[in-house]
């Protein structure tokens, strides 16, 4: 993984820690070395913070891949541009093709940033950072499970 430490706090500014609990997938058990790439993008798909990768998942069980890892968003919430979103791309290794593929993605918009648990829907690849042509991954109720903690000085 390429996780970064929490930024120094600034008076009146809010930092966000997101705990990636688990992701629901119908073929969760078949994913090899799954991990999640987290990025913060503006409406044009431009990175607003450094991109971070989680370590490989802790365990796979039934229809869930469990991560339980904290991501420190590398910008104060107040400094993120209007329309920004936090993206989560679920990636796994494909031995036959010898490369790591993105299976699906999810994203959280600024109005969804609030303390506590949140579940967000999964979308089909390719990742659409501009959020124009979104297609749900499946009709089944499968989600990315997150828990948010806000740190304010």
Short description:
The chain contains no helices and 10 strands. It has 153 residues and is mainly beta.
Q: How would you describe this protein?
A:
Keywords: Developmental protein. The chain is mostly beta strands and 153 residues long. It has one domain (23-152): C2 domain (Immunoglobulin-like, Sandwich). It is 0% helix and 48% strand. The chain has no helices and ten strands. It has strands spanning 14-24, 32-41, 52-53, 59-61, 64-72, 85-94, 99-109, 116-121, 123-124, 143-152. The strands form two sheets. It has a five-stranded antiparallel β-sheet with strand order 4-5-1-10-8, with no helix packed on it. The chain is globular, with a radius of gyration of 15 Å. The model has no long low-confidence stretch (mean pLDDT 96).
């Amino acid at each position: 993984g390429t996780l970064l430490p929490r930024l120094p706090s600034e008076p009146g500014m809010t930092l966000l820690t997101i705990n990636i609990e688990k992701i629901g997938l119908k073929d969760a058990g078949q994913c090899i070395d799954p991990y999640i790439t987290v990025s913060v993008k503006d409406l044009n798909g431009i990175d607003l913070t450094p991109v971070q990768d989680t370590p490989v998942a802790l365990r796979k069980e039934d229809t869930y891949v469990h991560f339980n890892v904290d991501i420190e968003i590398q910008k104060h919430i107040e400094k993120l541009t209007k329309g920004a979103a936090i993206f989560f791309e679920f990636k796994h290794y494909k031995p036959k093709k010898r490369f790591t593929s993105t299976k699906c993605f999810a994203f959280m918009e600024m109005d969804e940033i609030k303390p506590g648990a949140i579940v967000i829907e999964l979308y089909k690849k390719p990742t659409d950072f501009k959020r124009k042509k979104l297609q749900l991954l499946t009709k089944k109720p499968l989600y990315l499970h997150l828990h948010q903690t806000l740190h304010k000085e």
